[in-house]
Amino acid sequence: DVRREKWTKIKKYKKNDFLVIHGGPPCQPFSNSGKQKGKEDPRDMVPEFFRAVKEMKPDVFCMENVPAFGNKKFEQYLSQQVEKSLGDSYYWCRFYMFAPHFGVPQRRERLFVIGFKNALCLERFKIPTPTHSISNFINDKKNSLKRYLSSYEDNEMETLPKTIGIREAIGLGGGFPDGLAPTFRSGFTGPRNSTSILNGASSQKVFAQLGIWGSGVAASIVEAEAFAPENGHTRLSVQDCSLIQGF
Known about the structure:
This protein is of the alpha/beta class. It has ten helices and six strands; from the N terminus they run αβαβαββαααααβαβα. Helix content is 30%, strand content 15%. α9 (221-226) links the parallel β5 (212-218) and β6 (234-237). The protein is globular.
């Protein structure tokens, strides 16, 4: 439980080393798929993240969360947390990244908040530009949010290697079209403690179009192959999910 952690005891190990704090506080208080209670949600650990930064005084911090945390509803709360905990001791920025633009065959959008102790470091920092193109997935290219590519022209994107689809990522053959996977979630989540890795019917529909069974994940590839779904779709294993997420 990070609320009980005294981070100052870790600070003494820093000495002359360069220290970075990188964390992802729970996203449920801010996610569009939840009730968006924000600071009223007992799972909100954003204040604890910035308490860790305040006590350990790292050279750099990086916080990752769902994009909704950067929307109008929560942008003031985010700024308040940074200013309340850190004052003028850090220079920070925020930006979004879309996983398929970096070769990951899964639609995952995230907000990043990065802070530096040194103002010059922030001036030198460059927001990562895409390493891959998703032009081979027309619908995803069309729906790709403009904020990712405001400084990146289409002709530049065309020169980049193409992001592969979910089926190619896990070594499946033809028979179904390939495409990007919906965002995965961890198991045993939500009010029904569902073991599905998908959120809702729309994600299930995407999986069905790709010939993937979306109602559960086997512990291993051997087990997944031993219990094939009756509809002929592919049952995923834990290893498959790792590959699809870029591990």
